[in-house]
Structures
1.
Amino acid sequence: MSPQNLVELAGVAVRRGATPILRDVDVVIRSGDLVRLLGPNGSGKTTLLRLIATLTSPSAGTGTVLGAPLGSATVGAVRPGIGLVGHQTGLRAGLTLGENLRFVAGLAGLPNQAAETALQRVGLHGARHRRVEHCSNGMLRRADLARLTLGEPTLILLDEAHVGLDTDAVALVADLASGVVARGGAAVVATHDASTVDNATRTLMLIDGSVRERS
Amino acid sequence: MIPLRHQALLVAAADLRAERRTGEVAWVAIPFGVVALLVIPMAIGIDTALLARLGSGLFWVVVLLFGLGVTQRQTASGSSAHDDTLRLLGVDPAARFVGSSLASAALLLGFAGIVGFATVILYDPHLASWWILAAVVALAVAGLAMVGTITGAVARGIGSRTTLAPLLAAPLAIPILLGATQAMEGMRQGAGILRWMLLLALVDSLVAVAGVLTARPLEEAAG
């Protein structure tokens, strides 16, 4: 793998039982890429992001993410370099936003102040004492973005990250993605809305589990 | 990455903090456990000698049944997205096992303490030594906590969050129930209880080793 290739997938397929979700996927994502992943609902965008996040193993084909072969034990070592915001919040119910961010900061070996700074960055410092169950969907999205900023990942994966966000928060998503790209990382933003992520450097189309590059 | 011990303590602290907020153990498990102990004398009649003889066994049945519910609280309410967050943070699955088990053990100790107090009031089970009782309870709740954590992870791995975990846990908890009830009965009769204490310690050790060794494959299977 050349150093600038952060993700390499070759002939990858993912099945759930007998149902094929992804088929024969060949994708290379290089440092500096800001990829817009387009596809209708049910096309396999979430599965592809989870595959790149090393959270799902391929049923067929091979791939590496940040140098670690998919499905191998070495993926554990590269996972802290990957940030994912999915459909559901990754925050822990029962805890406040501040407690969640401090928990993540603690596990990442960062001081509590890093959590406060991350919440300030996404405009949620005033809501830091609010429990996850009492937050709106947009607040949870913002808090998930704050969680991503804590670890400074090399590769960020955003699954329909614009849904439920106001204009300011959409700008946060763009800033976050641009920041990772500027650091030499890459970002993949999955969306069914072609009008979003207008600063993308590449666009991949996912239709019925197959990926095509759109020029 | 921070040391495993620190990871485990952070996981345990987060679990306990969430429990303090939701109050599942304090406001659901404990009242139902006490009510279960309360209704049994009504069913079998006020025979104080019989109640004293049954008391310790009923205590352990209640601790087992409701205690497994306590250990499964995250299996039912936890989100897979939060599990993904922990995986991507690089949290060691063994540290998660230890942390979750520590939190469950702490909650079970509180549960057993209150239910035990209710047992003494309602059944007067003639306990010979509070120190030995404390040791038996500590060993038993440690084992139940670890069994609950493992079976919760198995249930997540096969996509059955709420229904299967108690069914998986109950057979694994039988040696713990046997060791605890026999130790209490031996104590009541003034007989030796060393072998039952050793059984509890052996089961705890085996479950701990199994939990640490299976934590990673179970976590990956859940993905």
2.
Amino acid sequence: MNDFTTAFATALDLIGRLDPQLRDIVLLSIEVSLTASVCAFLIGAPMGTALAVYRFPGRSALIIIVNALLGLPPVVVGLVVYLLLSRSGPLGSFGILFTPSAMVIAQCLLALPIVMALVHRTTASLWATYGDLLLNDGANRFRSIWSLMNIGREGMLTAFLAAFGRAIAEVGAILIVGGNIQGYTRTMTTAIALETSKGDLPLALGLGIVLIVLSMTVSGVSLFLGRGLGDKK
Amino acid sequence: MFSRRKMLLACIAVIASAFLSAQVIAQEKSIVVASTTSTQDSGLFEYLLPIFQQQTGIAVKVIAQGTGQALDTGRRGDADVVFVHAKSAEEKFLAEGQGVKRNPVMYNDFVLIGPKNDPAGIKGRDVAAALKTIKEKQAPFISRGDRSGTHMAELALWNKDAGIDIDQQKGPWYKSIGQGMGAALNMASASNAYVLSDRGTWLSFKNKGDLQILVEGDKRLFNQYGVILVNPEKHPTVKKELGQQFIDWLLSPEGQKAIANYKVNGEQLFYPNADDPNA
């Protein structure tokens, strides 16, 4: 029990002092994970909706694959991105291994199936309801994608938050492609892993508490901003 | 509602610009050093690198891995310098033409750690006898199992010094965990097991629990660190000037003094020996 009290005290102390090192780590975590989840959303939401709108051979198989990829292991994604971005890999000339950009790419790949699957689930039932209406209105299927995403705003927000949650919480992928470099690619989760390995468990748990508060804040703010979007429905 | 949508857009814009600016800042002079968990977990780099950066303006980005993995990172051309501790693996790295030159930097030693009540009764014995006893008594032993310098040293102690082919003769008492030094110590602490550690990580480790040093000071527990510039002829992206500058500084009287000055609880963790050609 003592460990937990120390951890809470550590967490409060870290937040209270506005520890500059912690601030940088927190900012980097948010920056990387938000960028990754926004990217994943911008790519995944239209694709997920398209899966609901278009009919083509292999569609059901694709839906099954996307849903299966919900369980994509971060460490495998990290390894694949590592091999691609390594100097000896096909994309090595960009020189972005062990940078925040590499971390964004890895987290974006991780979040993509989540966005696609959740958006598809929302828009598929909306398409069943509004599909004929939209098409009779003269909209083609391509235009319907935007309309459907607009109607399903709340589902979109859920998908985005799930993507962000996945990104901010994972450690396996960014540890490999970011390298956990102090002051450069060290995020909340990799810092927690590091402090655990140094045996400073209260500090690690304290950082964990800060991370949880942080991710709750981001979700809260998103829900607040998103509530307005839902009003019109 | 309109204002909320505006706020949302504003938020996205701020995030995007923050990210772009972070990318711009990253353009400073920097090198990537693949090193071992012991140099990071012991806090040595956190102490050394700011001194180096202040003098030269070069930021050193350290990727802390096991020695085997760190050398592989060098082999892929993903690091400019490797800073590791397994002489035979380093010499193999050089023989493959992956590195320019191996420079001895500093040493410390390994220590055999175990629970205070020492169920196998190895305290104060020499390391070979201690390992033999652990095996006879089937006392729980945690192995790094990650091709790190410490793991390679542990295997050499079993195979050569204790004369036990550990790969063949290990049982359920021997747990190979495939993780870093800190994780191995955490596990030993939680399960009252024996474990081989480098002294630096042990001294700065905070979750010691009931563990303590049982065997130390044996000549066979010597732990030498070396630093190598990754061969720019093989990997043209290697920043050879900056990397060499870092190596030169480590070997200079100034760098050597800085290494000697690093202490945890008043105890020196690493002993500089760049002047020893046989190290």
